[in-house]
Amino acid sequence: MDLKLLGHQIKAAKSIAILTGAGVSAESGVATFRGQDGLWENYSLEDVATPEGFRRNPELVWSFYNQRIRQRLSVKPNPGHHALSQLQKLVPQVTLITQNIDGLHQEAHCTDILEMHGNLMRVRCVRCRSKSDIDEPFKEALPRCDCGGLLRPDVVWFGEILDEKILQTCFEKSATCDVFLCIGTSSLVSPASTLAGLAKNNGAYTCEMNLEPTPNSHLMDLILTGKSGEILPKLISLLESLL
Ligand code: OAD
Predict the structure, then answer these.
(1) Please, which residues have CB within 8 angstroms of residue 172's CB and are 6 or more apart in sequence?
(2) CA separation, residue 90 to residues 11, 87, 112, 176, 222 (Å)
């Protein structure tokens, strides 16, 4: 019944914005950040996810990221990722705003993706700032650019500023959408966590899909409790019958 409410809102919507977080990739086997076995439970965020940590000990940061790259290469998109890709084919104007850096939305053939926190499979040079894609972990403890500068993961660390253009588009899409979906995010990290409020204040129908309540749950018109990899495929089946 609840899913039907969302289905009708999606059917009537002219544009939809979807914010995804680590929970969407959890069923692929990618660790989330918080909660039991979360990445930040087992690693010090200050050591491996801040510019100061990288300056202090780049080898440690690279050993952490090489491990994440290795793990990323061993997983595949799950039914939740595939359902989002189907949704983009079923209805027009679906923007996917993701905090995830794993590229699993792309692998599931999603389009219109705004990566707020960068991409694990891309590096940039701290000296010449050139960027390049990678397809395997680095063998050397400290990878270097052709110019000799140190390479770093092209991801946003704590204390760093997000790409201005991407962020602006995230704000615009959230402020102008008719339906805003918040899927698999703890809504604890700003500015991503502010997008739901922006959408709500501008009249969007808001829906959260998560295993548990979040600090943004009070902003939601609808809360769907459960795994995104199970709920999203059901939503697609429903939409196929509605559209
Ligand atoms: P979190 O680890 O903070 O939260 C994951 C959320 O997903 C939790 O609310 C879980 O309840 C939910 N969840 C887990 N499995 C799920 C499933 N199968 N279906 C639906 N929901 C599920 O991850 P994010 O909110 O993405 O930033 O974290 C935000 C940012 O904090 C990350 O992008 C990262 C991190 O520090 C940076 O590294 C800059």
Answers:
(1) none
(2) 10, 5, 14, 20, 21
Which residue of 39, 162, 186 sits with most ligand 1 atoms within 8 Å of its CB, as the best mutation to test the pocket?
186
- pLDDT of 1 > 70? The answer is no
pLDDT value at residue 41:
82
Q: Which DSSP category does 157 fall into?
A: P
Average of pLDDT values for 116-122? Answer: 98
pLDDT at 234: 98
Q: Ligand 1 center to residue 201 CA distance, Å?
A: 24
Distance separating the N- and C-terminal Cα atoms of the chain: 17
pLDDT given at position 243: 82
List the residue whose alpha carbon is closest to atom 23 of ligand 1: 22
**Active-site residue, 117 included:** yes
- Segment (H or E) for 95: strand 94-98
Q: Cβ(149)–Cβ(125) under 8 Å?
A: yes
> Stretch 130-157: mean pLDDT, rounded?
97
Amino acid at 182: C
Give the mutation target among 116, 160, 181, 210 for probing the ligand 1 site: most ligand atoms within 8 A of CB.
210
**The one catalytic residue among 8, 109, 117, 218:** 117
Average pLDDT over residues 3-23: 97
pLDDT at 121 over 90: yes
Q: Rounded CA gap, 209 and 185, in Å?
A: 9
**Residue 172, SS3 per DSSP:** helix
